[in-house]
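Here is a protein:
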Amino acid sequence: MTAILKLNPVLDDKSIETLAQQIAAYPEKRELLLRTLLGEQACRQLGLMPIPDGFRVSVVIPVYNERQWVRELVRRVQETPVPKEIILVDDCSTDGTRDILKDLEQEGCKVVYQDRNQGKGAALRTGFQHATGDVIIVQDADLEYDPAEYPKLLQPILEGKADVVFGSRFIGEQHRVLYYWHSICNWILTTSSNMFTNLNLTDMETCYKVFRREVLTGMTLKSDRFGFEPEFTAKIAKNKKLRIFEVPISYSGRTYEEGKKIGLKDAFQAMWCIVRYWAAD
């Protein structure tokens, strides 16, 4: 590696391009180069950190009628610089998504096909059963959430500070401007959840929930639809040994015309789940 980095003292455009090509041939050395160039503190702020030997992430993706987005989403997940397995759970799609998933299965993704439509929570339960990684990341099958942010989501766990990480859309990153009442509804649900769990989350309803696989030990998840979010939050809050962090994430929400599925009915269901899973398992 040292030999290939013997550069001309004058770094012209061609020399820089050559260096980039050489580094691309040694991906395991990229982090070392960046740490040398940027310094430890800057790398930490960017979410750049060493990955322990043998470490692997399970990315669990519930899928329902996402023919337009799922192939590109999986491509972006595959490009993230962390060792991973990709688990796609098709919730009985009817729009041709299954044909795309069969192709992705041939490319090395794990694909599980539900025999009937049950909802996001049910699909996640199935995906969790197939997860073998050290850490699980929940990923929606559209492009609202950016897989490029996996490193900073994983950082508190890899640094030994957290067992569970929530990616918050509301603490400082860029986001697409969309529905005002959705943001109010998110605030109401998060605040209500916090009142029952005594957590101080800013975004309970976020898709990005990242956690050590052992967090699921002894946890029985029951919600079939979007009630997964408050149920999971309530149950980790009851385990006082778990360390919970939030990190800022970007958000590129979509409209109902673009395929958004969650609605007012799900908001009422989430409120019910907040109370139900606080009161009893």
Notes: The longest helix spans residues 180-197.
